[in-house]
Amino acid sequence: MHNLELLPDNRDVPIGPEETILTATLRQHIPHVHACGGKGQCSTCRVQVLAGLEYCSPRNPCEQALADRIHLPPAVRLACQTTTTHNLRIRRPILDNLDIELTRHELEHPDQQLGTEKRVAVLFSDIEDYTSFADELPAYDVIHVLNRYFDVMGEVVRAHHGYISDFIGDGLMVVFGLEHPETAVTDALAAGHAMMRQVTTLNAYLQQMYNRDFHVRIGLHYGPAVVGHIGGRGFRKLATIGDTVNVAARIESANKVFGTYFLVSEAVVEAAGPALSVRQGFLAPLKGKKGLHRLFEVTPEVPPL
Ligand code: FES
Predict the structure, then answer these.
(1) Domain range holding 94?
(2) What is the distance between the alpha carbons of residues 271 and 275, in angstroms, rounded to a whole number?
(3) How far is the CA of 22 from the centre of ligand 1 (A)?
(4) 35 CB within 6 A, ligand 1
(5) Are residues 45 and 104 in the same domain?
(6) What phi and psi, each to the nearest 5 degrees, are found at residue 200?
(7) Percentage with pLDDT > 90 across the chain
(8) Residue 269 maps to a domain
(9) Which of 69, 96, 115, 186 is positioned for an S-S bond with 226, CB 3.0–4.6 A?
């Protein structure tokens, strides 16, 4: 056993030869922030090595990649990736009362902890011409209609193992694959078709009440994302973060450009295989993304006779 002299806590923490600094501090119930769960994919567990850097294990490739990306000086090490063969003097730079409380909360609620990388299908939807619809109607009617719409869509999403991650005005962000990763894409595609079918049912009501129809636009992408709880103490919710989410949102917006209603990425087409019927492809720039991206329009389902 060696010793970590830990500042600003002013604690001595024993550390075994194969143990990382993070494992040693957490074992002593020190609220050491570790947002990615010790996977070397964030920088929140970083420590500054004040004495003994030469005894620390060299940076492994994942720590080196992160250090290069955010320009960490050599003496700043990821606690979850670093072991030592001698005593060290280290300082945790991320330490304020809020960090301490949030980290304690995470340690006390392991079910709500940190983030996990998953492969998910992310679906964004919105309603065509919603703004003009909302402008023309009293606000109470808009809320009434949106509640009916979200209720119907919520049923569809649940029936296909999806999770509504966000309501954005008239839009929805839905994540598939959290509990059934093997069917993430097929569930999302089936849900997209079902959303379009169900909105035609709702349209009978909208026609009668307001002489209007809703048309849903959908964008779908498949890829890795980090899923974790965000929020403050007492109001946390499951969130999905990452490029897959951003791309899915941009694909949904591309429907406006191409005059389509259901666009998916190449990753979706590849994951779905021949069962998915697409009728045309586009090479499209996506706002905020480099290069051109291949998108496909999903063939609308033939309504049952
Ligand atoms: S906890 Fe994320 S890199 Fe150490």
Answers:
(1) 2-112
(2) 10
(3) 9
(4) yes
(5) yes
(6) -65, -35
(7) 56
(8) yes
(9) 115
Mark which of 68, 91, 112 sits at the end of a domain: 112
Distance 245 CA to ligand 1 centre (A): 22
Residues 54 and 182 in one domain: no
One domain for residues 65 and 154: no
Give the distance (Å) from ligand 1 centre to CA of residue 267: 29
> Which atom of ligand 1 approaches the CA of 40 most closely?
3
Atom of ligand 1 nearest to the CA of 46: 4
CA-wise closest residue to 32 among 88, 95, 81: 95
Nearest CA owner, ligand 1 atom 3:
40
Which of 97, 112, 127 is at the close of a domain? 112
Domain assignment present for residue 147? The answer is: yes
pLDDT in tens, 63-78: 999 889 888 899 999 9
d(CA 137, CA 29): 56
From 235, 237, 248, 216, select the one nearest 122 (Cα to Cα): 248
Task: Point out the ligand 1 atom lying closest to the alpha carbon of residue 38.
Answer: 1
Centroid of ligand 1 to alpha carbon of 173 (angstroms): 28
- CA atoms of 132 and 191, how far apart (whole Å): 26
Among 33, 45, 63, the mutation site with the greatest number of ligand 1 atoms within 8 A of its Cβ is: 45
| Per-residue model confidence (pLDDT) at position 117 | 85
Task: Examine the domain organization and report whether 244 and 136 are in the same domain.
Answer: yes
pLDDT for 111 equals 57
The total of structural domains in the chain comes to 2
Q: Is residue 164 part of a domain?
A: yes
Alpha-carbon torsion angle 160, 244, 301, 274, nearest 10 = -100
Cα–Cα distances (Å) from 165 to 123, 150, 244, 262, in that order, read: 10, 13, 14, 19
Q: Is residue 303 part of a domain?
A: no
